[in-house]
Design goal:
This is Replication activator protein Pra. By secondary structure, the protein is mostly beta strands. It has one domain: OB fold (Dihydrolipoamide Acetyltransferase, E2P) (Beta Barrel), CATH 2.40.50.390. The chain has a six-stranded mixed sheet, with no helix packed on it. Strands 3-4 form a two-stranded antiparallel sheet. It is globular, with a radius of gyration of 15 Å. The model has no long low-confidence stretch (mean pLDDT about 90).
Length: about 120
């Protein structure tokens, strides 16, 4: 699967949803785990703002990468942010999207305005 590194160095990233366990199976409530480490996964909602455009995205992070002190509405950093395009067929319907993953989510700062 193709992995695209996301350069978020100039972006403003604001937390819109507090970290919550990523559910693998809604019927059983099973929590998703990392395929390699077996660690539980969490999701966070953020608004990603860069070059005048914004997107609401869900980002998956390992449970150990969730830092204390996160506040909804405050800036956060997402080290190691990558995007993975995906597609699947379910009940005869093709679906596609982009899954985002980071190594952590931590309190961040607003980027410095550039003089111009």
């Amino acid at each position: 699967m193709r992995v695209i590194r996301v350069d978020a160095s100039t972006a403003t990233i604001l937390l819109t949803e507090a970290p919550a366990p990523k559910v693998r199976d809604r019927q059983t409530g099973e929590i998703a785990k990392d395929a390699v480490t077996g660690e539980a996964l969490m999701t966070v909602g953020v608004v990603y703002i860069d070059e005048g455009e914004s997107s609401l995205i869900q980002v998956t992070v390992p449970e150990s990468g969730v830092t204390e002190g996160l506040t909804v509405g405050a800036p956060v950093s997402l080290p190691g942010l990558v995007a993975r395009p995906w597609q699947s067929v379910f009940n005869g319907r093709e679906r596609h999207g982009i899954a985002y993953r980071a190594t952590a989510v931590a309190p961040g700062a607003f980027p410095m305005a550039q003089a111009g």
